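Morning. Coffee machine broken again, so started the prediction first thing and wrote up yesterday's gels while waiting. Chain of 40 residues, entered below exactly as on the submission form.
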Amino acid sequence: MVLAREAAKLAGQPSLAGWLHTVSRRLALNARQSLQPSPP
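Came back before lunch.
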């Protein structure tokens, strides 16, 4: 779903692989951050 929403940004990227890497990395970082407990 996220990849479909982000597809509009693909036009400015030189390659599909680079775009997929960027989007996937950002999603993974966001997921990891949401799983970490917040400080007291």
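The radius of gyration is 13 Å. Going to sketch it on the whiteboard this afternoon.
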